[in-house]
Amino acid sequence: VYSTVWGYSCSDGHGDTSEVSRSLREGEVAEWILLDGTPSICANVALRNLYPDEIDLMVRFLL
Asked: Which GO terms describe its molecular function (predicted)?
């Protein structure tokens, strides 16, 4: 189980968050996504949605 929040940053350092994705509004410069879940869920979502090619190997280091 995980939760997702979309964030929208402005050039002045302020921004807005939303529970659903939406179009950028005037003054907003970027959309970002915050995932609250286990490390494996976050890695899975990131790799499946951000990397277009097939993934050969993923390594995780714990400090």
From this structure: hydrolase activity
In angstroms, how far is CA 27 from the centroid of its own chain? 20
What number is the average pLDDT over the span 17-41?
87
CB contact set of 42 (below 8 Å; sequence gap of 6+)? 2, 35
Task: Report the amino acid identity of residue 5.
Answer: V
CA distance 21 to 58: 28
In the chain the beta strands, taken as DSSP E runs, fall at 3-10, 15-18, 28-36
Q: What is the pLDDT of residues 49-61, one digit of tens each?
A: 777 788 787 777 7
